[in-house]
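Onboarding guide, step 5: your first structure request.
Type a short instruction followed by the sequence, for example:

Predict the 3D structure of this protein.
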Amino acid sequence: MPADPDNSNADERHVSVTLERTMKRMGQWEYPSWHIAHVQDLSAAGGSGEPATAGVPPSPERFTWSHLPITLHRDAAEGYWYNLSGNVPSVFVVCCENEDQDDDEHAQLTLTTVTLNHDEAAAHLETDDTVLSIAMPPSLHMWLEQFVERNYKPEKRSKRKRTAWGEDQQDEAERPRAQRPIRGN
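The system replies with structure tokens like these:
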């Protein structure tokens, strides 16, 4: 995507994301299971710019990333609209597993992207990235809704023109036998 020097096609905010890991048991094996414990819009955090720790007790199984950008682009407005029109508008967190750790008990995820774009999250799922989601905080919901209202104009639906099947068959009958398409028995 070309750079947008005046940032006229984009809007950005920063968030803090806390992931929590729990160990699940399946038979005799344990494996890590991840979920989002908390997402905070730092732009709405009273101007401090620091993540609030209230409601998220510290734990060795919780990992927090702060000042992560969420950038909205005009050309992705349809994906934002799909997110808002769903049952639960969500924040999507895209992660990948650390390949350098052999021990499953200490395995961690590396957070790569935070997005509000439904289509982008689906694309990451198709590439086997880990995509976690959580209900969108009200401040991000209002921000996204305003962006979509300003930038998304749904395309008008139009009917597809029907093919006149009878004319094709008539043309075929008028062609000499050598020029007719070969058909199986």
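Each response can be followed by summary notes, for example: The chain has one domain: 12-151.
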